[in-house]
Amino acid sequence: MKAKIVIVDYGMGNLRSIQRALNNCGAESTISNNCDEILNANKIILPGVGHFASAMNNMKNQDLISTLNEAVLIKKTPILGICLGMQIMGKSSEEGNVDGFGWIDANIKSFEVKDSFKHKVPHIGWNNISQSNNSPLFRGINETELFYFVHSYHAIMQNDSQSIAITNYSYDFTSAYAKDNIFGVQFHPEKSHDTGLKLLKNFIEL
């Protein structure tokens, strides 16, 4: 039986790009903000492009917060947060000074680069990752392979054991984390060509 994958539509994400990438992995998915569909999924992807506070406000207005808490914390449905989707699974963010879901022991802060000529903010472009803890999310992916990033904020981990990948941009930051059924990546696997498809396929096969 194929996995029932739901890409959560809360009004802030490149949903079709993710769906096309999943199609390229041979997976079928649904883009939805329907609570029943999310609760009946056996995999969830939480995308995101934009502002942290606006994302949480959209979630609240669509009654998605309690639904996602039930799916992730009670039903233990595997979830992958991408970019802003990764950030809102943490505790809080400087971007709007609001709380996130609090599933991961992380706070979100803006880049504070030492050399603004060498390191522009937002961080845009290709970068590699160093795996800091073994995770099935990176199965078959080596540290010479590149992922595509677009972001001005990043996660500050309160629990290093939840960090599964580090990236350097002016300094080291956590670019992926995992806790039980919860996975987050700061980069965009749907824009990262074959390497990104490997990661999405690993998530599908969890």
Commentary on this structure:
By secondary structure, the chain is α/β, with parallel strands linked by helices. The protein has one domain: Class I glutamine amidotransferase (GATase) domain (Rossmann fold). The strands form three sheets. Strands 2-1-3-4-14-13-12-9 form an eight-stranded mixed beta sheet. Strands 6-5-7-11 form a four-stranded mixed beta sheet, covered by helices on one side. It has helices at 15-24, 35-40, 52-61, 64-74, 84-87, 193-204, and strands spanning 5-8, 29-32, 43-46, 79-82, 92-93, 98-99, 106-110, 123-128, 130-131, 146-151, 153-157, 163-169, 171-179, 182-185. The protein starts with a strand and ends with a helix.
Task: List its traits.
Rossmann fold, 6 helices, four-stranded mixed beta sheet, 26% helix, globular, 14 strands, 206 residues, alpha/beta, eight-stranded mixed beta sheet
Beta content: 25-35%
Residue ranges: pLDDT <50 for 5 or more in a row?
none
Q: Biggest sheet, strands in spatial order?
A: 2-1-3-4-14-13-12-9
Query: What characteristic shape results from the CA principal axes?
Result: globular
- Tell me the number of helical segments per DSSP (H or I, 4 or more residues long): 6
Under CATH, the topology can be stated as Rossmann fold
Give the class-level CATH name: Alpha Beta
Mean pLDDT: 94
How large is the radius of gyration? 16 Å
Architecture per CATH nomenclature, i.e. the level-2 architecture = 3-Layer(aba) Sandwich
Secondary-structure-based class equals alpha/beta
Number of domains: 1
Cα distance spanning the termini: 14 Å
Total count of strands: 14
> Major sheet: size, sense and barrel closure?
8 strands, mixed
